[in-house]
């Protein structure tokens, strides 16, 4: 299982998040989910989230909890997707990372990005799934089911 975590979630993941966020983070730290990272923009967004995130990310990379994708490939595809009129959000880098990595689970609060990630013509085989939609979302059986799926093409 691999997932992409949007920067808007990362900012809150080490603060007071709902039970869905705490469960997600525990699954990553237990090695059940790999966070996929790639592309200059997402790396900068993560870095800008502060010291707690930087420290956690460094440890997670060293522990093998993060799967790195080639930044150059993600950046090139991001540039192409920025011209795609089907995309509502400005998160072309997230969609590029999903297409390259095969990650099909997105953890994001961004409504437009969640709509784009769910579009069959952008994310398919398997289709993109959304983990959570609000900062203080309670853990549900749907969350547990999503984390049991094999949502990683590669």
**Shape, please?**
globular
Number of strand segments: 5
Structural class comes to: alpha/beta
Number of helices: 8
Kindly describe this structure:
By secondary structure, this protein is of the alpha/beta class. Helices cover 48% and strands 10% of the residues. The protein has eight helices and five strands. The protein has helices at residues 7-13, 19-29, 40-47, 51-62, 71-81, 92-101, 111-117, 141-148, and strands at 2-5, 34-37, 66-68, 105-107, 129-130. The protein has a five-stranded parallel β-sheet with strand order 3-2-1-4-5. Helix 7 links the parallel strand 4 (105-107) and strand 5. The longest helix is centred in the middle third of the chain and has 12 residues, at 51-62. The termini are close together. The model has no long low-confidence stretch (mean pLDDT 91).
